[in-house]
Design a protein that fits this description.
The structure holds 2 protein chains of 2 kinds.
Chain A (H helix, E strand, L loop, with lengths): L4 E6 L4 H10 L4 E6 L3 H14 L5 E3 L3 H7 L2 E4 L3 H11 L7 E4 L19 H8 L4 E4 L13 E2 L2 E2 L1 E6 L2 H13 L3 E6 L4 H18 L13
Parallel strand pairs in A: 1-2, 1-4, 2-3, 4-5, 5-6, 9-10
Antiparallel strand pairs in A: 6-9, 7-8
Chain B lengths: L2 H10 L4 H8 L3 E5 L4 E3 L7 E7 L1 E8 L2 E9 L3 E2 L2 H6 L6 E4 L3 E7 H10 L1 H27 L2 H11 L1 H6 L2 H8 L3 H14 L1
Antiparallel strand pairs in B: 1-8, 2-7, 3-6, 3-8, 4-5, 4-7
The chains are: A alpha/beta, B alpha+beta.
Organism (chain B): Xanthocytophaga flava
Protein name (chain B): Crp/Fnr family transcriptional regulator
Pfam families (chain B): cNMP_binding (PF00027)
Chain lengths: 220, 192
């Protein structure tokens, strides 16, 4: 596709937000970055422009305006902040693809704060009934974006959602970021994906992977 | 965000508040900046765009030259209809002449609304009928009227476009070179 799609990255200065923004700035997208800390955001935008002079990237000082201008809204914020943002952007996110990357982990990293019969993505979908929520990038660490091939294997990135078009869009984002996309199923599969992230985080801490680790389905 | 969209809708067909809420749930609010593309030739046109605020143009590019087929100001609807309806690559490009606010309707939403909301179907039929009539008028005028008449008609029918759009684009829309249009305008000024 020649026509550039605009992505609003909400929470762009976080670990994940900045990693995703850097990765996608190399692809055919226009990026609108939003973060609460505008000074930090400016620094990030300048850094990205320095490493890629043709990057189509801009900072925006309002999450609603960024989302209004966007075709795709990427919420790169923790689960706890997701609700608040979703409330703000509900109207301008109507019928748009909203990517949820969050993992609703408790503070001791040994379980979820969500009930077992739901997930962060499904909760977001309830809050944004007319948006197309997809789960993506929650099983990949921030460091994976600069090293999407680990130990000779391309990291898999799992996607879940209920809308065909939105899954396609998310799959393109995953490919643009350098990962191998796996369409895992409808939005309820987010429960599995969020638990996969929990397991990966636990293993990473236990085995000291230095936050460079990922999931890979091996097959013949 | 959708004020003008529903104002225009209500000018043709009455809507209950419930019907408005139902239709609204399918609409995409989208801002676009000046010079940004909504659609580039060769891509598939995935949306019908209604202009809430601002101005867009639709054009084809032949051998590096732009041929404008449509200006869309507030209240107008723009799409590469052929591409939208068939899923074939678009032959037209659409970009913004000013920072604009749009209301987009995707193909799947359009089809679902046609199925579930008879008033939407009626409204769409009226829009397409209007567009067809406008196209016939334009065709007749461009094959049968002298240039001066055509320009005079254009200025009378679309004074807003003349105000807001650069002359060379109006020339392109009329199939004239900028020099020819400039000559015609001078001549008309002298006649006044």
């Amino acid at each position: 596709m020649k026509t550039k799609q605009t992505i609003a990255v909400i929470g762009a200065t976080g670990n994940m937000g900045s990693a995703i923004s850097r990765a996608l700035s190399n692809a055919n997208y226009r990026l609108l970055l939003f973060a609460k800390d505008q000074a930090k955001l400016q620094t990030l935008v300048e850094e990205i422009r320095k490493s890629n002079v043709v990057a189509d990237i801009e900072s925006v000082d309002c999450s609603v305006n960024a989302s209004w201008e966007a075709d795709i809204i990427l919420l790169a914020v923790p689960y706890q902040a997701e609700k608040e943002i979703a409330e703000k952007i509900r109207e301008v996110a109507n019928q748009k693809v909203v990517v949820s990357i969050s993992n609703p982990l408790n503070t001791s990293f040994n379980g979820m704060v969500t009930e077992p019969d739901t997930s962060a993505a499904e909760e977001l979908q309830k809050q944004l009934p007319h948006s197309k929520v997809v789960k993506a990038f929650n099983t990949t660490f921030a460091a994976d974006f600069s090293t999407p091939v680990i130990d000779g294997k391309q990291v898999d990135s799992f996607i879940a959602g209920n809308h065909e078009e939105a899954l396609q869009t998310a799959s393109e984002l995953v490919v643009a970021a350098g990962f191998y996309p796996i369409l895992a199923g409808d939005l309820s599969v987010s429960r599995t994906l969020e638990n996969m992230a929990l397991l990966l985080i636990q293993e990473t801490i236990k085995s000291n992977y230095d936050w460079l680790a990922g999931w890979k389905v091996l097959h013949h | 965000m959708y004020d003008l969209f529903f104002k225009k809708f209500r000018e043709r067909i009455d809507l209950s508040p419930e019907e408005e809420i139902q239709i609204k749930s399918y609409l995409i609010p989208k801002k676009i900046r000046r010079r940004q593309y909504l659609l580039q030739e060769g891509d598939i046109c995935k949306h019908i765009a209604f202009v809430e605020k601002g101005a867009l143009r639709e054009y084809s590019i032949e051998g590096g030259t732009e041929h404008i087929i449509l200006f869309a100001l507030e209240g107008w609807t723009v799409a590469d209809l052929f591409s939208f309806l068939t899923g074939e690559p678009a032959v037209y490009t659409i970009d913004a002449l000013e920072d604009s606010e749009l209301v987009l309707i995707s193909k799947s939403s359009h089809e679902e609304l046609l199925q579930t909301q008879p008033k939407y179907e009626t409204y769409m039929r009226l829009l397409i009928t209007d567009a067809y009539i406008a196209l016939q008028k334009r065709l007749t005028s461009s094959i049968s009227l002298p240039i001066e008449e055509r320009y005079k008609n254009f200025v009378e029918t679309y004074p807003d476009i003349v105000q807001r759009v650069p002359q060379h684009m109006i020339a392109s829309y009329m199939g004239l070179s900028p020099e020819t249009l400039s000559r015609v305008r001078k001549k008309m000024l002298n006649q006044k």
